[in-house]
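Journal club prep — side note

Before the paper discussion, L.F. wants everyone to see what a predicted structure for a comparable chain looks like in token form. Sequence:
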Amino acid sequence: IVWAGDTGAYSIGAVYGRHKMAPRLSPKKSWEGYFAGVFTSILIGAFFAHAFSSLGPQPLGGLIGPVQGALFGLVIGALAPLGDLGESMFKRQGGLKDSSNIFPGHGGFLDRIDSWIWGAAIGYFLIQYFIL
């Protein structure tokens, strides 16, 4: 879900992004991209929940259907980008452009996983407290 949201945000934001979300932290992020990422996350969450419930073993004992998958996608899609903005804030406060040189041109290693960390934590919380 996180990767799909990032892809949707980047694709739409690069073409239609006009309203900057946090110009000092992440100058290329736009509100248009953010909402496209959330929408993409909703679609992917619903799709995978439906696919797993109809084509394969029931995820979590059959407790997740397309509606729950869409809600899962909504929450993760809306909150996971905060991990990226938080990591950007730490870099700016430290006077760094990139967090490492492992992935040149991508902002460093932490830029590859910052949204994933938030997404994993949020996903764990949602599963623990609302599904199980």
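L.F.'s comment for the group: The mean pLDDT is 83. Keep this in mind when we get to the figures.
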